[in-house]
Amino acid sequence: MSRTRRIAVIVALALAAAGAVVVTTSTAAVAADLSVAQAIAAQDGRSASVAGYVVGQPTATTTVLRSGFTGDTALALADTASETGTTRMLYVQITTAYRASFGLQSNPSLMGRRLVVAGQLTAYFSHAGLKSPTAMSLAGTTPTPTVTPTVTPTATGPVEPYYAAAAGKTGTTLRSALHSIIKVQTAISYDQVWNALKDTDQDPGNSANVILLYSGRSQSKTSNGGGANDWNREHVWAKSHGDFGTATGPGTDVHHLRPEDVSVNAARGNKDFDTGGSAVSEAPGCLTDSDSFEPRAAVKGDVARMIMYMAIRYEGDDGWPDLEINNLVGNGTAPRIGKLSVLLQWHQQDPPDAFERRRNERIYAAWQHNRNPFIDHPEWAAAIWGS
Prior knowledge:
- The structure is a single chain.
- By secondary structure, the protein is of the alpha+beta class.
- The protein is 29% helix and 21% strand.
- The protein has 12 helices and 17 strands.
- It has helices at residues 3-17, 27-30, 36-42, 96-102, 171-182, 190-200, 262-268, 300-313, 340-349, 354-367, 373-376, 379-385, and strands at residues 47-60, 63-65, 74-78, 90-93, 114-121, 129-138, 202-203, 206-211, 218-220, 231-235, 257-261, 272-273, 278-280, 283-288, 292-294, 324-325, 336-337.
- The strands form 5 sheets. A 5-stranded mixed barrel has the order 1-3-4-6-5.
- A hairpin with a 3-residue loop joins strand 14 (283-288) and strand 15 (292-294).
- The model is unreliable at 1-31 and 141-159 (pLDDT under 50).
């Protein structure tokens, strides 16, 4: 008899001796959910309930897809949403009854969500696993206590598990926590950026088109290239500001890459952001002068939040330049961009909208598996840079 069962029997006998009415409950019903680490350590064929975060689709013993999902028959759970090591993942079989709701090909937005699965703890893909599930459900957003400390709600509401390490922080400690969170990402190539932008910047009213950032024009996804009136890949943090080019890294980070008309992209060039100047041809509402560019009102906040993301993501600790926002224009090739005071104003004037939030979700779910914290928590800009 298991220790849990013996304790239950002793308690029942004691209550009965005292004349109490005893209602018996199976140990399976009262047992707490196992963590993924506990489930991996068990693997003894017993039935158990396991709670963990969805981190991908296993396709082999040491291979887990984090985007481009090919099926609905399996998923991988881990004790943290950012886990990339397959030895710390539990491979879960998804049987027919659960595929429509929990298969990743059909439901890519499940990435990073917390799931509770009941089934048999036994090898799957010759890897620690859970097979023949009897129940699958989304869990609440509170992290499992044995894995992550309980998060204290802030004035703006509870902090979701992805940002748990940033809860209650401000200033440099918040900046450091966010950097550690968002630097865990899947890097994509510059060629892959084309397909990523066709997904992330899709026109909500026409799935065959993308919306160009500065122009605001809806244009065919297939009209990408370098010719007149084609759209190409605009680096919102100009790649010459730090000289990182288009090699995999900041030069291919989709959080600051957007589709734009070739000639408008050239008009922006590598200028810093500020107000004023002359009208930009083919980009109504945009202005430019010799050393700065002002985007149209509808995307000013988008631009600010992309710049803020880059400054937090790239801190010089992974072989790339330490990118920083300053209050200057004409920064040239230095890893700096401005103007901070103007960007903070734009961030306040143009809060995140549905298009920007969807974009953030698609980058997280399907491409890089990291998020822009200033879209999810606009208040963090002031907490780091002031108002």
